[in-house]
Write a structure and sequence with these properties.
The complex is a heterodimer of chains A (504) and B (375).
Chain A lengths: L8 E5 L9 H5 L5 E4 L4 E4 L9 H5 L5 E5 L12 H13 L4 E2 L14 E3 L20 E3 L8 E4 L2 E4 L7 E3 L3 E3 L9 H14 L3 E2 L7 H7 L3 E5 L8 H6 L2 E5 L10 E3 L6 H7 L7 E3 L9 H14 L6 E6 L4 H10 L4 E5 L8 E2 H4 L6 H14 L7 E5 L5 H9 L4 E4 L1 H7 L21 H4 L4 H25 L15 E3 L4 H7 L2 E2 L3
Parallel strand pairs in A: 11-21, 12-13, 13-14, 14-17, 17-18, 18-20, 20-21, 22-23
Antiparallel strand pairs in A: 1-4, 2-3, 5-19, 6-22, 7-10, 8-9, 15-16
Helix pairs in contact in A: 4-15, 9-11, 12-15
Chain B lengths: L13 E10 L5 E2 L1 H8 L10 E6 L9 E7 L4 H18 E8 L13 E9 L10 H15 L3 E5 L4 E6 L3 H7 L2 H4 L1 E2 L1 E9 L12 E3 L2 E7 L4 H10 L9 H15 L4 H8 L4 H5 L3 H13 L9 E7 L2 E6 L8 E5 L2 E5 L2 H7 L5 E3 L7 E4 L4 H4 L1
Antiparallel strand pairs in B: 1-10, 1-16, 2-9, 3-8, 3-10, 4-6, 4-7, 5-6, 11-12, 12-13, 13-14, 14-18, 15-16, 15-17
Helix pairs in contact in B: 1-4, 1-11, 6-7
Bound molecules: iron/sulfur cluster (SF4) (2 copies).
The site of one iron/sulfur cluster (SF4) has 14 residues of chain A, from helix 1.
């Protein structure tokens, strides 16, 4: 059937500059560029281009420009080009439109409507280059009070403490499974986490055996509905266990790793036959109620000898705060919430772009809910889904999060350009693929260096902003909405965020 | 479901002078010297608030909780009607053994004074949970008065002690309440205030107190929002819109309710930095790490120096990086704390020892014998 959709991108090659090295041909896994020996020139097929910009960056002669096509349908506010084309594609295939990454729709990005405070006169700002600036954070349950016995200056702690994760900076790598991402990308995340004093999350695809000893100390392992790759050693080599209930990019639905991505190594790690589809059901089939979840939390605590905090990850949806409060009472030590803009390797576009709520609102309402119920100290909140820079992190913390997970941001640090084609398994940047030719492009040393540079840079910026507010420990900013003001927001939005308008 | 209104509150910002004097032998002395000392730091205030806390001033009523109440309002009638409402509440919840207007000087010497009254009371618990202690009962009811009864405000509630405060320079407030003539105490603390916003009301002056714990404070708490939500979880309603209030509540929570010793409390409010903790021996490291982990929301960030008064004790503390230092001194049985050494020298030119404690290190003055106070 002839497709009625025209290409998304237009490739322009400067024939003067091009040296016919055929680099672009090799770079593109989608087969966009081919060499025509008769004409001795490179030919590009616009239809195949996904706009990942790999060839543009790697062309030694700087000869390629990839830009959105200037072709257009007659402008129509209701029938945007995207709506029109999605419809045509469905008419041609009868299928669900798949996509990758987080939602790109123009939902209000609250980060960009919140401004931070700084000290003037009455409270000196603190220079992080001269004074200590503390970003260390503990994730896990804290007791309501501490019982101690003091005898002749010798102090004994009598309260039984829950295990906590110590992070040197409040930025963790979000769950990205081996299988969805390449071994090199996975290993780069692990290496950078260990180097930067933070944690990476294995996602639901298991943790390759040979990585456990070296990287277990900075791993959070996930238990998801597919239960891939779980054994006692997997749970115990890590520092925390996360039960994944939901994901911001696709709340309410499960996951599907196509058989082509299940290579021998992925199969072994996931403990499934090679080449079979790895399907994570929408719900956990042993969790149909909050009591069931509590049983799983305690089963995992038993399995790890009560030495590791248990996190529960849920998508931020309409009444999630009440659910999260139930989850805390069910025994979770950490609540990870994933907002509307959270990323994914593959999700139906209709779900990605229409289900869930923005993370900024979610953080604030969860923090408030738990405070009102007097149980805020019984868990930590880790926020995910749409964190783009250090100021997003600091705002998340002032709204009540203990730390954040970054996913897309980490991938971008490794080279990802958010082309949204992760589900094809042909990522030209070697990230979301199991093709050894492609994944080999990602050098673990370089990628992990880029990741730890990112953490270092953001941590410096966070210190700088904290010092400006006259605060020298991040814990004094947690839930401290006093230091935030809203610009250009409606009254109800300020209410949910719990912040004043600028100038108020 | 009705929408939850956003938590609008405005924090007040001020810089100040603080002073404290204590006789560790429990000899009582009038407020004259303390008034002179705090007046010496006149320029650190701007006349928008001054106050005193005095310990050991009501020996004849030492077994009763002394409530100091402030009734505000535009007219004398408004003040009286607030008092009427309060009286009704008080009679229901407490046995009042004696009450009177707190004696004062000419009202023309201060600006817009409220009606200030004292009540000596005992809790009258009816049908309450029997495990509720007298003190918890009192705290609960003070929170009720301060949040529910308009224009009535309890600003002092301990046994055998009292706070006196108002809008004006501290020396003027001292004179208004005749602290140099009518009262003698074994310990006094004082405060002169320099708020940068102009809203001046008598309840906003220092000291802030709950039961017998009083706080005078110089500085700004930039962690206010964090401290506040944590304390709210434990039932403390922060109504005064000032960061000093959170310190008073934190002290009450940690010292009275959780029974932590002051040395530990100091490490919670102004903990050492992680680099220092990481160098300590295993035991200390574990203790301090746990304290910081559990009580992170009570870390008081930003510049501060404060004096905590309690029955039999006076404690000085500065922030962890000593952005607002405090001077401590002793002379014989006298123990002093002050924003400036000169004020101490003014009333006690000869001193045995003068020092500036490190950030986060509490200086504690205690009575040599608690018996005299309690008997
Ligand atoms: S990579 Fe650049 S120089 Fe090489 S063939 Fe392609 S366009 Fe020409
Ligand atoms: S990971 Fe690869 S395929 Fe996915 S969006 Fe990034 S560049 Fe595209």
């Amino acid at each position: 059937m002839k497709s009625f959709v025209f290409p998304e991108f237009q490739i322009i090659r400067d024939e003067e500059k091009c040296g016919q090295c055929r680099g672009c041909e090799r770079q593109c896994a989608f087969g966009t560029h081919t060499y025509d020996p008769v004409q001795d020139r490179l030919i590009s097929d616009d239809y195949k281009c996904v706009g990942c910009q790999r060839c543009v960056i790697f062309c030694p002669k700087n000869a390629i420009v990839v830009r959105p096509t200037p072709s257009f349908y007659r402008p129509n506010a209701s029938w945007s080009r995207e709506k029109l084309e999605d419809l045509k594609k469905q008419a041609e295939t009868g299928g669900v439109i798949l996509t990758g990454c987080g939602s790109d729709k123009p939902f209000r990005i609250y980060w960009d409507h919140i401004v931070l405070n700084a000290s003037q006169v009455t409270n000196p700002s603190i220079d992080p280059l001269r004074e200590p600036m503390e970003l260390r954070t503990f994730l896990g349950a804290k007791p309501d009070m501490m019982d101690i016995s003091a005898k002749d200056g010798d102090v004994e702690i009598k309260t039984k403490l829950s295990p906590n994760l110590m992070v040197q900076t409040p930025i963790l790598f979000s769950a990205m499974s081996y299988g969805a991402i390449s071994y090199n990308a996975f290993r780069s995340l692990a290496t950078a986490a260990c180097k930067s004093g933070t944690y990476f999350n294995t996602g639901e695809g298991g943790l390759p055996r040979e990585m456990r000893e070296e990287f277990g100390r900075c791993a959070i392992v996930q238990v998801a509905s597919g239960r891939f790759g779980i054994d006692a050693e997997y749970l115990n080599c890590a520092q925390a266990v996360e039960i994944k209930v939901g994901q911001g990019a696709k709340p309410g639905i499960g996951g599907h790793l196509p058989g082509e991505k299940v290579s021998a190594a992925v199969a072994e790690t996931r403990m499934i036959p090679m080449g079979t589809d790895a399907i994570s059901p929408a719900p956990h089939h042993d969790i149909y109620s909050i009591e069931d979840l509590s049983m799983l939390i305690f089963a995992l605590k038993e399995a790890t000898n009560y030495e590791k905090p248990i996190s529960v990850k849920i998508a931020a949806v309409h009444n999630f705060a009440a659910i999260a409060s139930g989850i805390v009472r069910a025994g979770a030590d950490i609540i990870a919430i994933d907002g509307l803009r959270g990323g994914t390797g593959a999700a139906p576009k209709a779900i990605r772009d229409n289900v869930g709520i923005p993370i900024e609102l979610a953080i604030s309402s969860l923090d408030r809910r738990l405070r009102r119920e007097g149980i805020r100290n019984r868990c930590s909140i880790v926020a995910a889904g749409g964190i783009r820079c250090s100021s997003d992190v600091i705002k998340a913390i002032a709204l009540g999060a203990d730390a954040v997970y970054i996913g897309s941001a980490a991938l971008i640090a490794m080279g990802c350009t958010l082309c949204q084609k992760c589900y094809t398994g042909k990522c030209n940047w070697g990230i979301c693929t199991q093709d050894p030719r492609l994944s080999g492009r990602l050098n673990v040393d370089i990628a992990s260096q880029r990741l730890s540079n990112l953490i270092t840079a953001w941590s410096h910026e966070i210190s700088e902003m904290l010092g400006g507010m006259g605060i020298n420990a991040l814990e004094s900013l947690r839930g401290n909405r006093d230091h935030l003001r809203g610009v250009g927001l409606y009254e109800w939005e300020l209410d949910v965020l719990g912040i004043k308008g600028a100038g108020e | 479901m009705p929408r939850i209104r956003r938590e609008l509150y405005s924090k007040e910002i001020c810089a100040c002078s603080i002073f404290g004097a204590m006789n560790r032998d429990s000899e009582r002395f009038t407020g004259a010297g303390v008034m002179k000392a705090i007046a010496n730091m006149h320029v650190r205030g701007n006349g928008l608030g001054g106050g005193f806390a005095a310990y050991g001033i009501y020996p004849q009523y030492k077994d009763y909780y002394a409530f100091h109440l402030m009734f505000t309002g535009k007219s004398p009638q408004a003040k009286l009607s607030a008092k009427k409402e309060l009286d009704a509440f008080l009679c229901q919840k407490f046995d009042v053994v004696y009450d009177e207007e707190i004696p004062h000087g000419d009202e023309a010497t201060v600006s817009d004074p409220p009606l200030v009254w004292r009540y000596f009371v005992l809790p009258k618990k009816q049908g309450e949970d029997p495990s509720l202690s007298d003190e918890d009962y009192i705290v609960e009811n003070i929170m009720l008065v301060n949040t529910r009864i308009e224009n009535a405000h309890v600003f002092s509630s301990g046994k055998n002690m009292g706070c006196f405060k108002g809008v004006g320079y501290p020396e003027d407030i001292g004179e208004y309440f005749m602290l140099d003539k009518l009262y003698s105490a074994y310990a006094w603390t004082a405060h002169g205030r320099f708020p940068t916003n102009t809203q001046a009301w008598w309840g906003g002056a220092h000291p802030f107190s709950l039961l017998d714990t009083t706080i005078v404070h110089n500085g700004e708490i930039s962690s206010y929002g964090t401290n506040r939500w944590y304390l709210e979880m434990y039932g403390y309603a922060c109504t005064l819109q000032t960061d000093t209030e959170v310190i008073a509540y934190a002290a009450d929570l940690l010292m009275r309710r959780q029974k932590l010793p002051i040395e530990i409390v100091a490490k919670i409010l102004a903990p050492p930095i992680w680099d220092a903790i990481d160098q300590m021996n295993e035991k200390e490291k574990k203790l301090l790490t746990t304290l910081r982990m559990v009580y992170a929301p009570l870390l008081m960030n930003g510049p501060f120096a404060l004096i905590i008064g309690q029955t039999g004790r006076m404690i000085g503390l500065t922030d962890r990086i000593r952005l607002r230092p405090i001077t401590a001194a002793t002379r014989g049985e006298m123990f002093y704390l002050s924003s400036e050494e000169a004020s101490i020298r003014l009333i006690s030119p000869q001193l045995d020892r003068v020092w500036t404690p490190n950030g986060g290190e509490p200086v504690i003055g205690e009575l040599n014998s608690m018996r005299k106070v309690l008997q």
